[in-house]
Amino acid sequence: MPDTVNNLASVERSVSTGIQSVEIGTSLLRALVQAKGSLTLTALAGAVGMPPGKAHKYLASFVRSGLVTQNESGGRYDLGPFALELGLAAMRRIAVMDIAQAALDDLRDQLGTTVSMAVWANHGPTIVRWAETPDLISLTIRIGTVMPLLTSCFGRIFVAYLDRRLTQESMQAEIADPNGLAARAGLRSLADVEPMLAEFRARRMAVAENLIAPGRAVLAAPVFDHNNKIVAAIAVVGVQGRLDPAWDGKPALELGAAARKLSQRLGAQPHLVA
Fold it and tell me: CA-CA distance, 158 to 262, in Å (whole number)?
């Protein structure tokens, strides 16, 4: 029995302290992840501050395990097929609904304003998450609300990035209503809509003021997944005149950073989160 207890204690100590060589070797994998392409042994070792001879030993094991591949002609190293499998498996297990609430709460605390998230469901942008502030006047828009396309910030983001076949019919219906919100916003044809969407895509953000709810100002930004497709949009919601809607204002900058971080966690390509 004492030997068993001592063995268990030894295992617990090794688990808590970890294996340092694994942690050191991981730095080489991280360098390959951050690199724009394959690297020579010298460049890779230099990137992590490791002697080339030591780095070569780690890389030989990584090559055998499939985490790293080596070009036979030039000897350059890159991520291997097993690294790809790991990445894809991780991305498949991460859903934006699972990770969004903490990001929304953080953004609310940074800006002191209500933050929300919508996904495309029920043929439109549907509110699925809120992070509210107690001082904001009660909103009639709640979880499950489906927002219009052309006059809500969420709608404008999804129209800007979704396949037009998903949004065309609803957009035309909103434009066709002479007494609707789109007409009041000056959007009476697709010719009015396209320049607006082009600017939102260029800014990677949409704005809407005093449209759905009088006296409200909203900024929204897209969230992309590993397929580089929009999977959600997050928005900051405030009182018109108190929430700064400028593209270079603090709300826009913090919102953009939060959307990029969520996209990164979902595996979006660097050019979408730069």
Answer: 17
